[in-house]
Structure formats: structure tokens, C-alpha cells
Amino acid sequence: MKRSSVGAAVIFALWGIQAGAQTETAESAAAPAEGGLAEVVVTAEKRVESEQKTPISMNVISAAEIAQKGISDFASLATNDTSVNFSSNGSEGYLTVRGISSHDVTEIGDPAVPVVIDGFTTIRAYDLTTSLYDLQRIEVLRGPQGTLYGRNAEGGLVNVISQKPTKEFGAGGSAELGNFNTNNFTGYLNLPVFDNLQLRVSGSSRRHDGYRTITAENGIPEYKADDEDSHSLRVQANYTPFDNFNAWFLFQSTQLGGTGSASENILFNPGPPCTVATAYNPTCAQDISHDRPNLGDPRRFPLYARLSQDIDDKVYKWQFSYSALPFGTTVTYLGGYNNVQWHHVSPIPTLFGADVGTPTVFFQNEYPKTTNHELRFSSDSSGPLLWQAGLYYFEERSTNLNSYGQTNPDGPDAANLLSFFFPLVDTKSHAAFGQASYNLNDENKITAGARYSRDTKSRNGVFNLDAFGIFGLDQTNSSESSKTTFHVGYDWTPTNRNLVYAKFDTGYKPGGFTTCAPYDPETVKAVEVGSKNRFSGNRIQVNAAAFYNKYENQQVAALSASCSSGTVVQNAGSSKIYGLEASMNALVTEDDKVDLGLTLLHARFDDFLASPTNGAAALHMRPVQAATGADGTVVYNNQLKGYMLPQAPDVTLALGYEHTWKLTADNGLNFRAEAKYQSKQFFDSFNYNDSEQEGYATINAYFGYSTEKWRVNVFGRNLADKVYLVDAAEVTTGSAHTYRYGFGAPRTFGIHFEGNL
User: Fold this and answer.
1) Exposed, middle or buried by CB within 10 Å (0-12, 13-18, 19+), for 581?
2) Number of domains present in the structure of the chain
3) 3-state secondary structure of 666
4) How remote is the C-alpha of 636 from its chain's centroid?
């Protein structure tokens, strides 16, 4: 693409050098003790501290691991973390942690597991496809983070920290070649211009052919989907004009093209015929089959028109800090602006009676502009009392949002079947927060914090049923929510190698509205007890956390035959979520390392009355409960108590083994093999057979040679070429009734080179 040429030129000019092998700052990781595991430093609580001394269940992925494992987006992140699941509906994705997620990826929806990149929060799901490169680390924080990070962080959050400019000259890059014509390049250049001014330029270019072959239909030539075509350029400056004051600036431009993710669409199969009429199915209507249809070859399937995506994302961020206020107080102001242009075209098999042989697509065009501001005051770390407090403001203004379903796109007889036009969608959040901890003595610490959030959402515009000559259906609506969230914790540190903690947190996600009805905020109350330990001279690290969540008013997206948009959001009564997370890292010998991660999760609805997904006949598939509506009409709903929450497998296990052969003092060979297993999970609340992913495992392996300056590595991911789902749903829009399936990445392999000056 022409607009990507500048970024690509920078990448190729810088390559030959390494992003993953760059020197991490003190904020990233400290050197290991002699013969021990490296000390990992994090900013999970917005302070620089050791991971092993931070009372949060988390997984931290270093720059070296990001490069080795090929983590370039949030789908690949999920394949490397036992507590994270990623799902994509073909155009947008979302994250699930501890069984908590949000499937509402509309312009009004919010995530339940947000992504925070360098302090900047994003809520749009399509931003999850943005490439990750030139990073210090990724911190996956589990459990509610509502006090320091605020709204939406109910299941946890993903904290992404970029490499920052340093006072040492550096240049590096990487190149990766593999099957599916993979060509991935990264590069960085760090320039200490003056003693008080440093610059850093970095970039990424990633391309591979599609994993799926879309067979020729309706005169559309065969093409590839599930491809990648991304280019990104990042420029940073760090300026210290005088003592105790620091200014940081960032500009990043990212473009994503290609076809994007493809979902297989299969027309509904009829279920067993109805033989006995009931009160909730008086006409004896025949239900669809909720068993999985024949998927055929997941690598080759038809779509009925062209699929495409086009994302242009520009980010501006800045941070100013001054650390010489009275009493050792530091003031930090973080601001930013993000301008996204998102265009997506999805084929659909039929809509409002259009023949399946007629090319039909759904166009989506969104232009969200996001602003983040945070003003935070914090104490120094020298005394027994540590505190921080601040104000936060967030706004997302999406203008000229327009989406429409069209037959025969781009042809002389193109015709709209339905369309949305929203001149303005506006989301605002204001918050005030504070958290303090006090060391009672060398072994005991207590912590307490609170955050008040007020959120508003508004939308104006119209919905048109073009196929029926109905225009101007008013879509103007608004909502307002507010909540105070809390954190209370107790830490016991019997030695400098052991931490035991207990804490109570609450989380909150604002309410909102769909075309047909409003929905309430959802909340979570969470108790967590954990321990972090280092043994044998820090050669062994063992961490574990047990948790219990009371999840109330969960916002669940569901199909509705009575809603013109086809989808409503319902509030589930409540859910119970509890489980155990454990990890172990061990240097068995100087040359052998073993790591293990385990998540045991029980996530079930405790009370959820839900309308059937596809007509009244679906009621016979699940327990039924009757209720009398306001107009006296008897309404029948499914009672889903005891059913699994979506994407909440009971068991997730990860194992890794690594061996190093030291050839000389500064070079050697390295081998790593790793596997991840997930037990059965569902992608919908009804736990239908057609949305089930049975238990499966994936296996990766790496073998490389490295010196002090460079490394070459051959890799294989998903070596068994396991076919697994990342999405499964029953979809109804107008008269279009399909099963939808999205698939994870197949086996990939190649060679990765990285080096630094």
C-alpha cells in the first residue's frame, strides 16, 4: 500500500539488527542473581517494583520471550497465557480472563478486559489487531483492577509497555521468514542526541498469506483470507530540561490491510420436528438444530463476496513528571489522542430474502477519536506510607459511523437492504481515585483504595430498512452510570523471598443501550489469596493464587427476533467464578529450565433468565421459567443456572522445557519445547453443541544459536496442526440464519534472525 511505503522503508533501512535482544531498562528487568532466575520488574501498581513483591496474580512476558514466541497481536498472546482467551467474530476480537469477557463489540459496548498501552486505554475491539513490537514487556493482570485502572477492568487487563528512549546509542532489528510467505521485519534506532534529549525510532512490517482459501462463488475469484498485512512506525522523544522534570512524547502510525479474519458461514440445519405443542410453543414451530454442522475443510470454504479490512491508526501520547514537590511528592500528567479510521467488509450468505447465490456484504465504517488524560500525585518510596491519588478523564467520539448491508456490491445493480447512520456516538468517563499502603513493620503491610467513576454514553442517528422502503427509524439514545470501586489488601512478608497476600476488590462496567432496549451496569466482587515464593537461591519460583468472584448483572449479547438490529444485550442475574492459578519456574541445572502454568476455573451462571436465541421453539432445549410481563402476557425464558460462562475452560495447563548448550562464554545453542492444553469450553451462554470447542493441545518448539550480538532461531508453532475454534455462534440478521465459525492459526514454521549493534 502506498501509504505504508515510508514505514516499510524505515524498517528495511534499520533491519539487520534486533528488537528482541535490545538492552532492557531498569524498569523492565534486573539481572539475575548468580545462578538464579532473573528478577522481573513491573509497573502493575503504577510504581516500579519486583513482580515477586507485587500482590497481584499476573503473567509477565519479557521482550526476549515476545520475540521468541512470535507474539505480535493479542491472538498470539492468548496462545501463551493460561489465563487469557481470545475470540474473533471475523471483524473484531475480545479478551477473556477468569471467565469474564464482553461479547458486545458494537459502538456502545465496552470490554471487560481492556488493553492499556503505555498508560493509554483503548476500548475498540479492532485495536486488538494492532501489531506489538519494540516492547519492554507485557503484563497480564488477573482479577479486577478497578481502583488504579478504573472502568471495565473486571476480569483483569493487559498492560503493554514499549521500550523507551535511553541514554545509550543502540540499533537493532529482526527478520522472520516462514511458510505462508511470511515476511516479518522489525527495527529500532536509539539516539542520545544530547545528555538531556534522547530519541527512539522503531517500526514493524508484517505480512503473510492467508491461512484460509476462499473458494470461488458468485463469480468472485478464489482468494486467501486470515492473512496479515501491517506496517507501523513509532517515534519517541525523552527530554529532561532541568533536574527532577521529565517529558516524554510518542507518535505512532499503523496501517492494517489485507482481507483480515475469515469466518465460515453455514446455513442453519433443521432440528427434530415438533410433535407436541406446548404453552411456550403453541404453534409447534420447528427449531433449528443446535448440533454442530459438518464444517468440511476448515482451510477451504466458500464465502459469497469479497472480504477486506482497512485500518489507519494514529496515536499521539505525552507524559510530564516533576519529582521535587514538598514531602517527596511526584506529579505526573499523562495525555494522549488516538484517531482511528476503520473500514471492514464482511460477506454474508443471505439477508432479507436475498438469494444465497447473490453476492451480499456488510460494510462497516467507523471513525473513533479517543482522548485519555490522567493527573496523578504519588509519594516517594522511602517511608512506611506509600500513596497515590489522581483524576482521570476519557472520551471517545465516533463521528459519521455508517454501516450497511448491500447486494451486488460495487455493481450497477447494487442495492442496500439495511443501513445505519450515526453522526455522533460519544462515550465519556470521569474518575477520581486514591490508594495508600502502610508498612506496619518489616513483615506486615495493609493497603486500601477507592475510585469513583461516572460514565455517560450517547448516540444519535437513524436505522433504515431499505429493502422494505422504511427509513429514518430513530436511534437516538443515551445512558448514565456511576460507581465507586474499592480495594483492600493485606501483605505478609516473612522473608525477602516469600510473600503471602489477601485482598478484596470490586470492579464495574458501565451500562448502555442497544437499538431496542437499555441495559444496566455490571459489577464484580472478588476475593483473592495468594503467595509468591523464591527458593534455592532464587533458582525456583512458585506462585499461586486462589480467587472467588461474585459476578452480577453480566452484560450478555443475545439474538432477538423482535429487535430490528437482531441483537440485544441482556443482564444475567449473577455468576459464581472461583478457581486456582499456579506457576512454577525452575533452573533444574545451569543449562536446564522448566516452567509450568496451571489454571483451574469454575465459572457458572448462578441465575440467568435468557430469551431463546432462535425463536420460541428453542425453549425446549433448556430449562424453562415463566414470568408475567407488564402487559399481563406470559413470557417464557430459559433458565441457564449451572451453565458454563463463555470461554471459561475448567482446566488450562502449560508446560515448557528449555536446554542450553554453552559453546563459549558468550555463545551457545538453545532448545525450547512447550505445550498448552485447554479443556472443553463454549462460545455461547446456552452451551449449545454447535458452540462447543472440545479439549485440545497445541505444541511449539524453538532451536537457535546465539552470540552476544545476534541470534538465529528456527521455530515451529502448533506443530500438530491442530484445528481449533476461536469463535462459534448462531447468527440471525433479518432472514439470514447461519452458524458462524472462526479458526485459530494452523501450523507455522520458519527462521527468525535478530541482532543488535
Assistant:
1) buried
2) 1
3) coil
4) 35
Distances in whole angstroms, Cα of residue 282 to Cα of each of 227, 271, 275: 48, 17, 11
Boundaries of domain holding 301 = 2-756
Do the Cβ atoms of 553 and 603 come closer than 8 Å? no
Cell match 440464519: residue? 737
- The predicted structure's pLDDT at residue 220: 78
Q: What is the mean pLDDT of residues 493-511?
A: 96
The Cα-based distances of 732 to 233, 418, 564 in angstroms read 40, 14, 11
Q: Cα dist. 413→400, 421, 601, 626 in Å?
A: 25, 22, 53, 48
Helix, strand, coil shares, percent, the chain, to 5: 5, 60, 35
pTM exceeds cut of 0.70: yes
pLDDT at 618 over 80: no
Q: 582 or 414, which is more confident?
A: 582
End-to-end Cα spacing for the chain = 31
Is 629 exposed, middle or buried (CB count within 10 Å of its CB: 0-12, 13-18, 19+)? exposed
What is residue 290's DSSP assignment?
-
Which of 137-141, 616-620, 687-691 shows the lowest per-residue confidence on average (mean pLDDT)? 616-620
pLDDT of residue 383: 86
pLDDT beyond 90 at 589: yes
Instruction: Choose between 468 and 594: higher pLDDT.
Output: 594
Alpha-carbon span 111 to 150, nearest angstrom: 12
Place of cell 514531602: 327
**DSSP 8-state secondary structure symbol assigned to residue 383:** S
The predicted-structure confidence for 296-343, as pLDDT tens digits, reads as follows 999 999 887 888 999 999 999 999 999 999 999 999 999 999 999 999
CATH of the domain at 521: 2.40.170.20
* Dist. CA 699–CA 529, nearest whole Å: 31
